[in-house]
Each structure stands twice: as structure tokens, then as C-alpha cells.
């Protein structure tokens, strides 16, 4: 594929190719996001500021303090909001910068802690429903990180739902790094086909009323 992709982008495509087209290809629609998403960004920023600069977490986000402090106490070098890129080569994959013109996959890890041959990768979630937690996000980040830090043998990853207090851990192993990067192989093949044919059919769902592509024939404003 000749353009970079991310976990959120491929999930958008999987949800609706037409939505993906307007947001990522034509770029004639901007997703303004909702209140929940903006709130999540503020919580993420507070956690990042604490890890990077030691800034105390504001009282209104105090519910995340125990988690962030526990992670901050773990041994190892800490990287908040770490951006990683991977590009395809004739021999497979290779680490690259997030903004590399040849970047294939782009990922942002909320927190990475590297301690020798082991690393922790944490992704904070501020949603109130962890039922549909997608562990493939962690697979992709682990696969990329193994290329950026080849001394790593094991990565202990987790989705941390700071509101519902749910914790979804997963272990990743160096030998399986290419398998992790292939987590969305089928969706990427479909995306490649849509791009080649320039055909982006809409996929209807209960989320159509909240879609930013309001000129779509399936859009219906929520009541």
C-alpha cells in the first residue's frame, strides 16, 4: 500500500469505506469529535505531563492518579506519547520515523517503559464501556516497537480503562513481531482494492446518525 495507515484509520475504514474516503482521502470532511473524545484527550494530556515533566495531575482528573503513579514507579526508561513508524522493504519490515515519507504503519503509544529486554506498553482508555476492547491495537504497537528497540524480547501490553477500572493485558514476543503487524491484513487488502478502483461504498450501521459525512445518503440526524 502506497500510503500510511494507523489503527484508528483502519477501524474507520472497517466501519465505513465512504466515511474513510471523505476523512482520509478526499479530506473534504473534518471530524470534530464529541465531548467524550475531547475529555479523553485532556486526560491523556494530564497523564503525559505527569510522566514527562512531573506536573501534578489536576484534581478533576484525580481518578487516574493512582494508575499513573504506579506506572511511573516502575523501573525503566519512560516514553509518553511515543510515535513509531514501520516501513515495508524487500526483506520485510524496518523501523522508520512517524513522518517518514515511506512510512507504512504509524502508531502512538500512550506510555512505553523500556527496562532491558522487557517493555511495558500502556494505552489509557477513558470510555465507560470496555466490552468492545480491541487488543489488535496493542499487537500493532508491539510489532512496531520490536523493530524500534530490537533488544526487546518480551513486551507486556495492556489496555487500561481508567473509568471502569478494567485492565486487559497481553504479552508479545519478539519472534512474532511480523505476525502482530499483520493484524489487519484482510482489511488492508480491501483498502488497497478500494483505493485502486476508487470505489468507496457506504456501510450502514447504528452509528450513521453520528457520522460527520452528513452529505451521505444514509445520514440521518439523531433525535
Summarize the helices and strands and which ones pair or pack.
Elements: H1 7-15, H2 17-25, H3 35-53, H4 65-72, E1 77-89, E2 92-96, E3 105-115, E4 118-125, H5 136-148, E5 154-161, E6 166-173, H6 177-181, H7 185-197
Parallel strand pairs: 4-5
Antiparallel strand pairs: 1-2, 1-3, 3-4, 5-6
Q: In percent, how much strand structure appears in the residues? A: 15-25%
Indicate the percent of residues in helices.
25-40%
Secondary-structure element pattern, one letter each: HHHHEEEEHEEHH
The outline comes out as globular
Text of the CATH class of the domain at 33-183: Alpha Beta
Secondary structure: number of strands? 6
The poorly predicted ranges are: none
Could you tell me the radius of gyration in angstroms? 18 Å
Describe the main β-sheet briefly: 6 strands, mixed
Number of helices: 7
| Mean pLDDT score | 93
Strand order of the largest sheet: 2-1-3-4-5-6
* Second rung of CATH, namely the architecture of the domain at 33-183: Alpha-Beta Complex
Q: Quote the CATH topology of the domain at 33-183.
A: Lambda Exonuclease, Chain A
Describe the structure.
The chain has 223 residues and is an alpha+beta fold. It has a domain at 33-183: Lambda Exonuclease, Chain A, CATH 3.90.320. It has helices at 7-15, 17-25, 35-53, 65-72, 136-148, 177-181, 185-197; strands at residues 77-89, 92-96, 105-115, 118-125, 154-161, 166-173. It has a six-stranded mixed β-sheet. Strand 5 (154-161) and strand 6 (166-173) form a beta hairpin. The N and C termini lie far apart (40 Å).
